[in-house]
UniProtKB/TrEMBL annotation, chains A, B:
Pfam families: Crystall. InterPro entries: Beta/Gamma-Crystallin, Beta/gamma_crystallin, G_crystallin-like. The lineage of its organism: Eukaryota, Metazoa, Chordata, Craniata, Vertebrata. This is Beta-crystallin A4. GO terms for biological process: lens development in camera-type eye; visual perception.
Amino acid sequence: MVVWDEEGFQGRRHEFTAECPSVLELGFETVRSLKVLSGAWVGFEHAGFQGQQYVLERGEYPAWDAWSGNTAYPAERLTSFRPVACANHRDSRLTIFEQENFLGRKGELSDDYPSLQAMGWDGTEVGSFHVQSGAWVCSQFPGYRGFQYVLESDHHSGDYKHFREWGSHAHTFQVQSVRRIQQ
Amino acid sequence: MVVWDEEGFQGRRHEFTAECPSVLELGFETVRSLKVLSGAWVGFEHAGFQGQQYVLERGEYPAWDAWSGNTAYPAERLTSFRPVACANHRDSRLTIFEQENFLGRKGELSDDYPSLQAMGWDGTEVGSFHVQSGAWVCSQFPGYRGFQYVLESDHHSGDYKHFREWGSHAHTFQVQSVRRIQQ
């Protein structure tokens, strides 16, 4: 992927092929535009892969509103990046649980769900996740809107037993849409 | 679907089972929270189904940031609504064309694509669309972000031959993600 320190693919430019724990070390104040040329990536608000998460799939992102979730308090900052290891789309599998620690009712997912309620899930929360294979992104609101949380079979052994494990920016169990990340 | 004139499902409440050309006629200044209890809907910025479009699938939307696209200039207004007629997910089919008026290279879609480039589409634009069946939403940026445009087989005979036909808020051919709308 390629990043620029100005909007519209202007200013200083840097190309990554592996993780970048901080663009500050490149002399960037923040990233203001980017293009993903291959693979899938996740960008983070803060250095060291902390803060809000933004899934970045192939394409062009000319300004912060192109990648930021539509949150009430958009973080106009993108500071660290790492690649995401996706499975073949057909082989991605995820289990969602009603309660934390893999308890309560569960659902098995192998497709994209812009609305978990429309697939029959009761309520607006998910208590815990187990990723059998692939990489997934779940979102606070239907239609993949709001805070995003990246879930990977390669991290935490695929186990996310409480919202505290979904990311440093997660403060509730609210999850209303889930999809596979596309390589 | 049910709408409220305050955030967090507070204030005056109104329930729709069919299209609503203007909530102003109900004495609402705007809609500030909503729940979709069944079906899929599209909400519009202005009365008479004009302005920005927001796909609303089953679930809870406690405030405007839950449905607004993550645009640089969010319209904090939601004034008219209509239901969307979806096909069975497996039967949804869409053709995308490189140029306006159904010309140039084309691609056949029957699945969700968070990144058209990742599926092999060249560039960040789509010139025209023909919806064979179902209802689709295409978005300006990858990962279903930015301006949304609803495309339906039941409208315009499924033909959208120029961005002017995608909606009154469309000003470019930029489309980087496309998915089926979920009933």
